[in-house]
Amino acid sequence: MHYEFTADYLTGIEFIDNEHQKLFDIANETFDLLSNNFVNDKYDRIISLISELREYTITHFADEEKYMESIQYLHRFSHKLEHIKFVEKLNSINLEEIDINQKDGIVDLLQFLVEWLQNHIKKKDCRIQKQ
Ligand SMILES: [Fe+2]
């Protein structure tokens, strides 16, 4: 396991923390795929990671937004905007380019995801409880 879900990523909201664990799992799967030297053609696996991420974040963001709404979290609108940007970026990934240069495709996906864990989860999600 490369990316560890340590205490500084905990929001203190149990269901959100459980859902974040899954995003760490996907980041670790992406890292494993990058480091796997036994698979030549990784295209199908990259595509399946992207769709997994897409499906999962739709549910996760909706859950988080519902919670922010329920506590009338002050920064819920700007927070939601970050979710929208994440989804937009995920949807704008050029799959053809990934097929041409698979290694760069995985590296980009991983960077995008890790940036999200470190900046959004750690800095924004962790603030939800302490407004
Ligand atoms: Fe969030």
TrEMBL record:
Pfam families per UniProt: Hemerythrin (PF01814)
This protein's record includes keyword Phosphoprotein: no
Domain of life: Bacteria
InterPro entries: Haemerythrin_Fe_BS, Hemerythrin, Hemerythrin-like, Hemerythrin-like_sf, Hemerythrin_metal-bd
Residue ranges of every copy of the Hemerythrin-like domain listed in the record: 11-125
Alphabetical UniProt keywords: Iron, Metal-binding
Protein family according to the UniProt entry: Belongs to the hemerythrin family.
Protein's UniProt name: Hemerythrin
Organism taxonomic ancestry: Bacteria, Bacillati, Bacillota, Negativicutes, Selenomonadales
